[in-house]
Amino acid sequence: MKKIAIYGKGGIGKSTTTANLSAAFASRGLKVMQIGCDPKADSTKNLMDGKKIPTVLDQIRQKEDRVSLEDLAFPGYGGVVCVESGGPTPGIGCAGRGIITAFEKLEELNAYEVFKPDIVLYDVLGDVVCGGFAMPIRGGYADHVLIVTSGEMMALFAADNIAHAIKNFGKRGYARLAGYIQNSRNVENEHELVRKAAMENDTEILHVVPRDRTVQMAENQGKTVIEAYPESPMAACYQALADKVWEVIQ
């Protein structure tokens, strides 16, 4: 089982990238599990025909000890097992702590043993690297980390913070940084800016994802590009990204 945490600044296209990666891996016959670790709980909606699924924390609040795995995990496109950790009641509690609670519940219910995924993708908010949001790295849940960024200043700043956190945890034998994914925003000199930032953190750009309206067209249908436009250049781009990711995690 390969376990990858995908981080990036909010709004950078991390969930879009993660969902398309999940769909690309599923199209090859791999058993994929995608776990959204953002309080917005929208990581998996494009694998679920645009529908949001019940979150782990909401189900725990409603059903307490009667929660079952069927309440938390839902089959999406290509058989991808979709899970959303969710967040605390607005204004009460800590979102990071919510992720920890969700992970503990999935372990308690033997989710990984039941679904036996070939690959697990954790989609994690990267604006803050507090204990909860760092759980996939420090808790031993992920073996590799990918950072989605553009050439925009705040996206690169967040990427740098995440990379430093990974280095700190890496010293203790936890997940390692596998590379950057450039999700282009057509910033001037963008590729060079991202390449330099990656080099400063002793890593590389695994793949460049161009800005393309096909992505929005697919999302308007509640689908990934892989599902909605499988013959498009953008689908080929995400398939190439999946190839590269699979290569570096071996």
From TrEMBL:
Its cofactor is [4Fe-4S] cluster. It catalyses: N2 + 8 reduced [2Fe-2S]-[ferredoxin] + 16 ATP + 16 H2O = H2 + 8 oxidized [2Fe-2S]-[ferredoxin] + 2 NH4(+) + 16 ADP + 16 phosphate + 6 H(+). The keyword Metal-binding applies. One of its GO terms (molecular function) is metal ion binding. Its EC number is 1.18.6.1. This is nitrogenase. Gene3D superfamilies: P-loop containing nucleotide triphosphate hydrolases.
